[in-house]
Backbone:
């Protein structure tokens, strides 16, 4: 890891989780923003161009499917 990068393993606040599970749109967007990098990393696919070079790209349909799956799981999540 270079000096310019910082590693942040912050957790979402409990209040945001409760609001998101309750259906609050802003809280759901906060959760999506929190996992945005992870979802993009999972959505990376490799493609070979005309010259045989490997090109990595983010598959937008897969990214949207993962975001939709996360939203449905958020809404069915039961908070203690």
Residues:
């Amino acid at each position: 890891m270079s000096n310019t990068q910082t590693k942040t393993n912050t957790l979402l606040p409990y209040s945001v989780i409760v609001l998101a599970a309750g259906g609050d749109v802003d809280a759901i967007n906060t959760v999506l923003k929190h996992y945005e990098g992870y979802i993009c990393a999972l959505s990376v696919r490799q493609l070979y161009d005309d010259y045989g070079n490997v090109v990595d790209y983010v598959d937008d349909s897969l990214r949207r499917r993962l975001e939709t799956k996360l939203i449905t799981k958020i809404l069915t999540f039961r908070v203690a």
